[in-house]
Batch of 3 targets.
Target 1
Amino acid sequence: MKKILIIADTSRLTGRELLSGAEKYISAFTRWEVYTLSPNYLTKDTSKKRRHLDLNSFDGFFVCYAEHIEPILKIKKPKIIHHTPKELLPGNSLIVTNSLKIGEMAAEYFVSLGFNNYAYCGFKNIAWSDERYCSYEQTLKKNGIDRVHRFVDTPLRNKEIDRQQLTRWLSKLPKPIGIFACNDDRAIYILEACKCRRIDVPEQVAVLGVDNDSLICNLSSPPLSSIALNFENTGYQAAMLLDQLMKRQTANKILQVDPVEIVARKSTDVLAIEDKDVILALQFIRKNFDKPIQVADVVNTTAVSRRELEYRFKNRLKRTIKNEIQRLRIEYIKKNLINSREPLYKIANMLEFTDPQHFSRYFKNQTGVTPSLFRQRLNLNA
């Protein structure tokens, strides 16, 4: 029987979902002897919790964002590490977030809301924060946006000084503006700073976070929109990988946590567009994209010609009406492929495709892969 040490911060959604996914694999496919550490209220000094442990006695380690992991890193045993301050730890199997996709998703979302002004708020000298900013900026440039306002600071800096600088920065930003925060913690910080300066959210400043910890997001004021990440599935795959590593069936790998969807709440519930006809068109599309609507149907909801609406729509949102319908349909399909085990024909029926083959061709034309291959790559059938 393999002896495994699991260390995780279960106070946050990330740790809980990784462990939830890992538990599903462990309970179904292993007979591990699992050890965990006592909670913080019993032992505040996390380093003391491990002093009584003989780390060399363990066959493997599953570590989800924990402090003082240096002694574990020195042990030459299979390890799965999710350590966000320093994602790259050579010689280990790692869990990292797909920050490039996260930044791209955030940019496309704000563009779809019609913003002219964009900003980013992150952490200084943290790789994943920098990557999210670079991807966000590059995607906006592809959409014709030349400037992204940026505010970064170190996580451990004096909070009062940081808050003062942040509020001054927010006051000087052009408005309305969409602000992408590197994670939910940073996004909540922005919302609090907006209250201090009496800046209206989302009318003047729309805020988007990352991680989608529903308790944090729903309890914020206003409720925070956030990018949900597929941590639970990655936890399942991580436990499988650890099992294979201990059996010497594979080499170390990097497991990537992909963004799943944007969970829209009040903090981004706005269309930063003055053109009433474009707003009407967007509202109709968002309400009916799951039906087989055509561009003509969208035009009929407005008071202008098709040619005029197409011109205004593309000029304002950097995409055509048809592109917007396809974008929302593909997002909806991906969400169902990732979050459900529904067979493909049922997902096709929800979007009123004539048959599964037509559904598969449509998805492949937009993404380059079939729905079944997309789901298979995420290992959701494991």
Target 2
Amino acid sequence: MSMLALSGWLAKHGHCVRKVYVTEKLPSAKSNLHGLKEMLLGSGLGYSYLKVWTNRLLPFQLKRMGVPASVSDLISTLGLASEVQGVKSVNSESVLNEINALEVDYLVSFSATQRFSEDIINAVGVAALNVHYGALPAYAGLSPYYWHLHNHEPEFGVTLHRINSKLDAGPIIDQTRDGVGEIKSALGLALKMASHVSPLLCRFYDGETTLASAKPQPTTGRSYFRHPSLEQVREFKRSGYAFLDSASKRDVRAAATKLKPAG
């Protein structure tokens, strides 16, 4: 899903990217297996399956289709020279030393599973940036594509903001809004949210938005969400929503197919 969200930006500005780090460890978990077990117990099979499908089963299906299945695949497809490295901890000393050595202006984060340390945030020359699925300060935290449906929101936002020590709380550079419409699945809403990520980044890298125009987030209206409880998941289903359905899975695969080069 990160590949789909970042595809437009990478196609246009990927030459600016020196290196990509993929955070491989679930947040606040001893191991991914332990984290998945906690998710299953706390949020149930359907919610956990959505995470497994997008991060494990979907890439496998896309590879069998012969289309890009990850950010690494897309970088290769676009002919970019950026190195991609999986890391258990983005805050490790080795990653920090490498970022310092690269002397980059920006760190761009999207859908990272770990919070960045102050050292990592300050290692870049200009700013650390994040794109978040939510009209911050509302819907900070986890799985906004689930929570917008759960709360029957008529619209959603996607925000480009500076990263600071508080999660999803840095000054807002740019924000877009769109209607949820008739979407009834978390995967379907995630795909629609993803379509706003590259335009936000492209506007920034094209100079249409700047750090100078960034504004502190309002002190009111902040909401923060974690994984849903079993009762919240039951309420979600009683409201007629699904985590993923055949239509949303088809749409995601179709979006990936468009990234395959002609011929």
Target 3
Amino acid sequence: MTKEEAKQKIAELVEKYQKLTAKEIKGFNEEATKQAFIQPMFRALGWDFENTNEVSPEEHASNGRVDYAFKLNNVSQFYIEAKSLKADLNREDYIKQSVSYSYARGVIWAVLTDFESLRVFNALQNKPFISLSCLEYLNHFDDIWLLSRQAFTDNELNKKAQAYGAMPPFIPIEKRLFKQLSQWRENLFNEIYRYNPEKKLEREQVDSMIQKLFNRLIFIRTCEDRRIEENGIRALLNQWKTGLSKGYLSKPLRALLKEY
């Protein structure tokens, strides 16, 4: 479906919504809202709801389940938390629920919608980025199109967010590592020596341990950076920060390394 065709389809959904009476709107629970409005809207934006590798319903996230995970190459791009028509999307618990699901899985974007309104959050920075009512969908269709499959293929939402300062500018992974590796190596070396008071490990052994860890982390981050794999390292860190993961971070990190 082209961008213009998608706009026409969403215009039809807006018209359908506007024709509902107040009594009919009250009759729409969350599931009916998803079936009648939210799914058709995102189908029009190019997402295949019959392919669970692209749209995964009721996916586990942190300590609950997100209504939909939207994926490219089986890697999550954004989560949707759906509500029934006329829900108050400004409710703090709704926003927290939507953002925390994405944050815990290292997914940048969280969408909260009841179709009548739509809110897009940068979950990693806990910042709102797009907020529209359905009456604004057509006049601001370029913003709606940022949630299309094609736009995510072209990385348009991240680019726009960077341009507006809603997320840090993209820096290639090799440049970030070049700046940080020396400091990380020094920190790790000092930490290992702190817990090695009898100097049972030679300097060369410590260097080898650090390099092996770096090699593994670089490999994983390269896979994540190229959108081949989910953001596993970020997810582990976020879960540890928020208390969803108990104990030392090293335990889930070892499990991730073993998985790779």
